[in-house]
Each structure stands twice: as C-alpha cells, then as structure tokens.
Amino acid sequence: FVPFDNIFFHDAKTYLFETTASTLGKVQNSDPTLNNNNNSSGLFSRFLHFFRSSLFANEFAEFDRQCDQLLKLANHSCVMADSTHIRILCTIYRRLTGSNEVFRSTTGPHWEEIGFQNTNPETDFRATGLFSVLCLLYFVDSMYLPLAKQIHALSRRPPQDFPFCCVGINLANMILKSLRQSSTRKNLRKAIDLKS
User: Fold this and answer.
1) Phi, psi angles (nearest 5°) of residue 139
2) In whole angstroms, how far apart are CA 74 and each of 111, 144, 176?
3) At what angle do helices 145-155 and 129-140 cross, to 10 degrees?
4) pLDDT tens sequence across 64-98
5) Which residue in 112, 118, 80 sits closest to 3, CA to CA?
6) pTM for the whole thing?
7) Which of 180, 178, 77, 75 is nearest to 125 (CA)?
8) 23, 34, 44, 188: which sits with the fewest CB atoms below 10 Å from its CB?
C-alpha cells in the first residue's frame, strides 16, 4: 500500500538531510571535468531559496554545510522501499496531475504519465540520487507549482512530447555539476552577501 498523504518540501528536506547525515563528510567542491571559469550564477537565482536560513544570517559556514548536504544527496539512491521516498514521488505525481488517486503498488504506468522512463521511477535517479528527487519536489511544492503544471501539460502535447521528470532530473544534474565547482560557490556567496 502506497502512503496517501503528501509531504511538504521542508519536511522532506529535513528527513533526507537527517537520513544521509551519517555519511556527510567533506564533499569535493570542484569537478575537474568542468570549466571553472563559467559564470553560472544566474542559474541559481531561484535555487537560492534552498538556503533561505543562511541568506539573512550571513552564515557562510551554514551555507557550506547545506551545500555539502545537498551534494551528498546525489550519492544516495531513491529507494521505493522507503516510505518517505514514496511519499515524495507520490506528492510530485499528485501535484502535477491534480489526482487524489491511492496507488496499490509503487510501480505502474502512472509514473510514465509524469515523465519517468518506465513504470519504476527509482531507476531514473541513478546519476543524481535524492538530490533530483528533492529538486522535483521543490518545483511542485513552491510558488512555481502553476509553472510546473503548465510545463507538464506542455510535455504531454504533440509535437513537444518530452518526459517532464526526466528533463527535471537532467536539470538537477546540471545544477549538481555547477554546484561542485568552487567558482559557483564563490558566486553564490557574493549573491548571498549582496542580499544581506
């Protein structure tokens, strides 16, 4: 039986951070395969909402800790045996489709309806792990829900016909690669400093 109740972004973030904290160590800040001279801070203007608590307090140590936690999420798989992971995915489904359906199984064609590659979404998160799960939830659990619904509707219409969640996972992967660059963190720190 799949849990019916939705989960809010903050609750999911807290759960994921707590359950992955035991493996939280120093995460490498730079990826040598990427161009460190690329100024990609514009990509993060909306992503800064993840760090709201450290934006106003100007606590760079907290900012770095949260960045490390987010990066560490990519090393953890989405597991359909974890009831909170299922709640997150079901929340994404319900918010995008407006459905209140209760599913009897964690697999099924309903996942393809929102843009996963097959009937088991667990396999689509290989490269980005729980980081992309959290990004997808943020997109549908924030002020961006109307935009998310519009993009999802567009994704199901010919000639676009693209897999919404797979595209979201690929965008999360781009964010991960950029967040691993030391220059990106410097640009984010500057943006935080300007907002303080």
Assistant:
1) -65, -35
2) 21, 23, 8
3) 110
4) 888 889 999 999 999 999 999 999 999 999 999 99
5) 80
6) 0.79
7) 77
8) 23
